[in-house]
Every structure is written in structure tokens, then in C-alpha cells.
């Protein structure tokens, strides 16, 4: 059964205040950088607020001025990464739909280039994403981002084939998201050459999955 967060819990995980001055922004960046470093060192085990404060060279009180708990800190790191995807996917919906399979393949390649850059540029965030996935309090919020991404994939497929049923489009979108993410994580843990080869494999899997539903020549 999927968990959902009530309003009280969501508020508890929100940053206490948003930095409005450059100095405050730098403090927040120090907190997030420290959390990222510790998460990389500790794997999927979430660092304590005290450990984050010490690594950032701040008092615990200074950290609590901006974040109510360690989960809120991890969530902010994850949000920065997850929020990069919807706009990239939505771009494919804004262009004219492809009229044949070769044009669609080129559109998929453009999407892969853009999303791969997000993974490669933020490779150090992957332990944080895995930590969020394994945290029962944070996972429901990641699920909200997942739903948005799945809906965008579905909208993209329906943009290509307006006759495609929404239920089918969302099922395909779910597979596209899960397979793409899982395989890229594997590639990031290896080396760049392996990452690129896995990217090609995922692209082939995507095309094999969705082509029968797109009514393209």
C-alpha cells in the first residue's frame, strides 16, 4: 500500500524559511553541500542534523533556522534534482509530432541527450535520491514527482498518437520512467562508457515498447 503524507507531515518537512539575501543563500548551500558529502560517504544511511552542521561548520541552531530536520534537508537536495525533469520532457510535447518512426526515434534521442545531462551533471546526488527512496517519510513526496513525470510521458505519447488511451499511455509512461531511471543508476555506478552503452540499450527498449502503440510508419 502506498503511503501518503498528511498536511502536518508535509509542513514538517518543508524548509523553515527561504533565503532572501546572498549571505543566507550561502548558508543554505553550505548545509546542502555538507549533507550531500555525508550522504555520499554513508551510502543510503541518512546523516544526522548534528553531523551536517559539523561538516558545514555551523551550529545546529543555524541549521534549524532553515530546515526543521534532516529529512527536510535531504528532500531539498532531491527536489533540486527531480524538478529538472518535467520541463525537459514537456519540451518534446511542444514540438510538432513526428510523422514516422524515424522522426520519433530522433525525438527520443533528443530527450535522452537532455535527461542524460541531468544524470551526469548530478551524479553525486544519486545516493541522496536512493536515500529518499528508502525513507518512508520522504518516499511519498518523491512519488508526487514520479506521478508528474509519468503523466508527462503519457501526454507525450498521446501527442504522437492522439488515439492512444490515457490508461495505456500512463502504463507505458510508468515503464519508461522506471526502466530509464534504474538502468541509468547502474550506468552511473560503472563508468562513462558503460553509461553510454546502457543509454543505447534503454533507448532500444523504449522504442520496442512504445512503437506498436504509436501508429507510425
TrEMBL record:
Which is an annotated GO molecular function term of this record? Answer: DNA-binding transcription factor activity
Query: Where's DNA bound on this chain?
Result: 48-67
Instruction: Please provide the record's keywords in A-Z order.
Output: DNA-binding
The annotated region (Disordered) lies at: 1-25
User: Which SUPFAM superfamilies does the record cross-reference, listed alphabetically?
Assistant: Homeodomain-like
Domain (HTH tetR-type) spans 25-85
Amino acid composition bias (Basic and acidic residues), ranges on this chain: 1-17
- Top-rank taxon, per record: Bacteria
Entry annotated with the keyword Signal? no
In terms of Pfam families, this protein maps to: TetR_C_15, TetR_N
Q: Which Gene3D superfamilies match?
A: Tetracycline Repressor, domain 2 (1.10.357.10)
This protein's name: Transcriptional regulator
